[in-house]
Amino acid sequence: MVSGLRPPGAPQSPHRDDLVGAPGQSPGTVTAVFRDDAFAVGGWIDANGTRHDLTAEQQDELASVPAGAAPQTVDLGGDLGSYRVAARAASDDAVVVTGLPLEQVTAATSRLGLVVVLVGLACILLAILAAALAMGRALRPLRRVASTAAEVTDVPLGRGEVSLAPRVADADIASTAEVGQVGAALNDLLDHVEQALAEREAGEQATRRFVADASHELRTPLTSIRAYAQLSERAGAEPDEMRGNAALIDAEGTRMSSLIDQMLMLARLDALPAMTRVDVDLRMLVAEAVAAARTAGPDHAWSMELGEDPAIVSGDAADLRRVVDNLLGNARLHTPPGTTVGVRIAADDGTVKLEVADDGPGLPDDLAAFDRFARGDTSRSRGDGGGTGLGLAIARAVVEAHGGTIEVVPGEGATFVISLPTA
Questions:
Q1: Quick one: 299 exposed, middle or buried, by C-beta within 10 A (0-12, 13-18, 19+)?
Q2: Contact 44, 28 (CB under 8 A)
Q3: Does the model's pTM come out above 0.90?
Q4: Is pLDDT of 365 > 80?
Q5: Which end of the chain is more exposed for a tag (fewer CB within 10 A), N or C?
């Protein structure tokens, strides 16, 4: 600590006005000279150039600064506040202490901190805004995907023909990998749903047609039965006439019973029941069916090519026999006398092919499509009443239930080819 007075004979200190406010000093500069740890001269200058003396407390604070040490911060109190001061030893053993006010530095630092904070906040806001814009742009295709899904939910799916027209645009699918996967999956889902709805509508229409056709087919024999019954009940009916009417009623009842049996079989096949499968030799089955057809249609020419290789398939023998009987019966009933009907069996690459062909007038389009209640036109009909129109439909249902296919080969006459997997 600096204390005491300057001893006699000590070097003369500069005048305060020569030391304080010297050229080059900025306002607020503090200057003090100490000799032998005693304050010699000093003061500070304000912004107006006025010189001021240092108080005893300020002198003691400056005297505590070691000479040659790094600049340090001291609090000079009063009007001065915090200063950054440094002490250096002079050549005359004096210690000169110089200090600059920290008020401007603190103010500049505060302003810089405020600027940094404001710039940081601005950068954060800009980053948030940029992120929001980027996310909005990235999510825009996803919002369009959601809009497509919302449009689909407004489409009535309960009944009737349904068209799910809305789809995710190709541009949205190609926008990003994630949105593209969602959009493609939604389009696939809509395709599958639309296909299922189309199949449902086709099934409903087929059911309605089937019910309408069945009603029409059943109405004809029922009308005939009622008419013959009324003729038998009228007064004065002869016994022979009544017996004839009874025979006609029996014939119409038999026809109606056959139609109902075939409709029940189609319903059973449509329900895809579990089938009892056994090994069936198609050569034996076809030989028996052709022999029966030859007996029923002696005015036709019948031929068989059964081949030498085994033709064993796995399935229901009765149902497969019905298929062959239906095809042969179709040829017998809907071709003129003298028509040649040939049956050929060939086994190749795990498949047995059964071909039934005739050289008659050919098939109309509705028969070639295996539609239910479809009958041959007059060019293939012999005019003896025909069948129920379900024979080919039953044949296709049975073959498909056995995992096979049936098709009509274009050309003269009618040629059916059945393909079944070997056992």
A1: exposed
A2: yes
A3: no
A4: no
A5: N
Two tokens at 389? 């129109």
Spatial contact of 283 and 308, defined as CB atoms under 8 Å apart:
no
Sign of CA dihedral 267, 315, 280, 302: positive
Please provide the DSSP assignment of 165-195 as one string: -----HHHHTT-HHHHHHHHHHHHHHHHHHH
Residues in the chain: 423
Give the Cα-Cα-Cα angle 107, 113, 115 (nearest 5 degrees). 105
Do β-strands 351-358 and 51-52 pair in parallel, antiparallel, or remain unpaired?
unpaired
How sure is the predictor about 275, in pLDDT bands with cuts at 50, 70 and 90? low
Confidence of residue 6 (pLDDT cuts 50, 70, 90): very low
> Tell me, what DSSP letter sits at residue 370?
T
Question: What is the distance between the alpha carbons of residues 327 and 365, in angstroms, rounded to a whole number?
Answer: 16
Neighbour count for residue 177 (Cβ, 10 Å): 8
Query: Are residues 334 and 360 in contact, defined by beta-carbon separation less than 8 angstroms?
Result: yes
Please, which residues bridge with residue 52 across strands?
Answer: 44
pLDDT of residue 126: 94
- 3-state SS assignment for residue 373: coil
Query: What does the pLDDT look like over 213-261, one tens digit per residue?
Result: 677 667 777 888 888 788 777 777 778 878 888 888 888 888 778 777 7
Cα(139)–Cα(171) distance, rounded to whole angstroms? 13
Query: Can you give the pLDDT at residue 130?
Result: 93
Burial of 411 (0-12, 13-18, 19+ CB in 10 A): exposed
Distance from C-alpha of 309 to C-alpha of 345, rounded to nearest angstrom? 9
- Cα separation, 72 vs 26, whole angstroms: 19
Q: Are 102 and 83 in contact (CB under 8 A)?
A: yes
Q: What does each C-alpha distance from 276 to 224, 280, 316 come to in angstroms? A: 39, 12, 6
Return mean pLDDT, the chain: 79
Q: Dump pLDDT digits (tens) for 144-159.
A: 888 877 877 777 776 6
Q: pLDDT, tens digit, for every residue of 223-233?
A: 888 887 887 77
The set of residues, in sequence order, having a beta carbon less than 8 Å from that of 246 and lying 6+ positions away, is 228, 232
What is residue 34's three-state secondary structure?
strand
